[in-house]
Amino acid sequence: MTYPSSAAKAPTDPAPSDAAPDPAQLRFIARMRWMMLISGATTVIAIAAVISVIGYRVLHQEGSVVPDVTALLPKGARIVSASVAGERIAVVVEAGGSIEVRTFDVKTLRPAGTLKFATEP
Prior knowledge:
- 31% of the residues lie in helices and 26% in strands.
- It has one helix and four strands.
- It has a four-stranded antiparallel beta sheet with strand order 1-2-3-4, with no helix packed on it.
- A hairpin with a 5-residue loop joins strand 3 and strand 4 (111-117).
- The chain starts with 22 loop residues before the first helix and ends with a strand.
- The relative contact order is 0.08.
């Protein structure tokens, strides 16, 4: 088994590192900096556009499909009437001799509130 001779010299740099670049090299460096600046700005604009589209779609879900919702009524209750008022759905329910109005949001179908009517004792 033979090892390379330790007397082998490392290759030397043909151009000294402290020499000033010539005008052609300076123009090339300036052009590369300009291209890098344009490329960076384009990347930032593209990322901002993607993030803004995602944010818009998350915050403006007006056209989205609402899933089917089942509202549970107490045993023996019946729906007397239902109507739409503004951005609410009002459902009048008769349960156990008392009447209550349940409201739901039109867009999300989530319960918005309940109004119960009772007779004074």
